[in-house]
Amino acid sequence: PELHKIISSKDFEDVAEKTLTPKGWAFYSSAATDLVTLGNNASFYRRIMLRPRVMRDVRKADLTCSILGCHSSAPFFVSPAAMARLAHKDGEVALARGCASEGIIQCISSNAAFPLQSIVEGGVTNQSFFFQLYVNAEREKTTQLLQKARDLGVRAIFVTVDAHVPGKREADERLAADNTMASAISGAKASNDKKGGGMGRLMGQYLDQTLSWHDIPWLKEASRLPIVIKGIQCAADAKKAMEYDCQGILVSNHGGRSLDTAPPSILTLLELHAICPEVFDRMEVLVDGGLTRGSDMLKALALGAKAVGVGRPFLYSLTYGQEGVEHLSQIFKDELETSMRLCGIPDLTQVSPAMVNTRDVDHL
Ligand code: FNR
């Protein structure tokens, strides 16, 4: 359909299912084994109720905020995803342009199809970028990459820690890998093996499985940038990130793609509230996984997230190129603004846990 007929994130998903190559669809939409975490990421947002307050002046709702010191027109950003070229020939560059015109931030994947420089220079000047890091078992390569990211003006490093062992994504394994594809950043390629053609698994073979908390000082020194740990899944590890003086955490389970039956990320956010509320003051807490509506975003913000990441929906919107990305961003802004105004919230400084009723999931 024409772009103006698309009115929700789900509409983009439906188009992507029909228009992507079977392999592209399998790689993007798949998740680990029985898809339990994938489903729960989304469905748990529906088990949390909003608590609207009425009779407040809400002619407008101001969505602007700052994420890790970077201005953003809205409290959401594009979560890093490998191989955006499977959705559109201009891949991550088109994504960058869409984000630039919308004033939102893109976190670039270590396994992006395009070189870091083309992506960073593909948008407009003064655009902020985050870079997602997969630490290479050959550490020297990582040191060089961090140096490059810094030189190119990247504003923060998101170190992914939940995919050092590849998740078993069966839909992706069943179809042959596209071995003409490679990441221009990490050099990772996919070539089929006995287990199948899983792109995520095959492209993740360079990851350092020995990475530990003791490596944080090295990452800080090599990048001299704010460090965010991506893939925090419990309160104990959120505390660890705080103890190691990280600037932020991204509560995430890799969109259900790594360990199936890991908790949905919104539940982990609630766990942080219950067990280590101090982390919200000491670090920027971000969350991704399963957000498809502005109301989902508002719930995560109410529960202390500074901003939320969106993965698959932006990949699906990219089937329409830059304009699709802009259109999805506008849909999200519109839905979030509507939810805020109906809840009596004029700007993001006013969100608080009192806005949500979490009773249905509090016993978990
Ligand atoms: C991802 N994700 C991911 N994360 C990361 O740190 N590095 C990466 O290269 C990728 N690649 C990737 C590819 C694809 C196709 C998907 C769908 C996801 C995970 C991503 O950053 C994010 O955590 C999830 O996508 C969030 O869940 P939703 O929004 O897709 O439900």
Automatic annotation (TrEMBL):
First-to-last residue of the parent protein present: 116 to 479 of 497
Descriptive protein name: L-lactate dehydrogenase (cytochrome)
Annotated organism of origin: Ramalina farinacea
Subcellular localization, as worded in the UniProt entry: Mitochondrion intermembrane space
Primary localization: mitochondrion
Subunit structure: Homotetramer.
Assigned EC number: 1.1.2.3
Family: In the C-terminal section; belongs to the FMN-dependent alpha-hydroxy acid dehydrogenase family.
Enzyme class: oxidoreductase
Cofactor(s) needed by this chain: FMN; heme b
Keywords: Flavoprotein, FMN, Heme, Iron, Metal-binding, Mitochondrion, Oxidoreductase
GO MF annotation list: heme binding; L-lactate dehydrogenase (cytochrome) activity; metal ion binding
FMN hydroxy acid dehydrogenase domain mapped to chain residues: 1-361
GO CC terms: mitochondrial intermembrane space
Reactions listed under catalytic activity: (S)-lactate + 2 Fe(III)-[cytochrome c] = 2 Fe(II)-[cytochrome c] + pyruvate + 2 H(+)
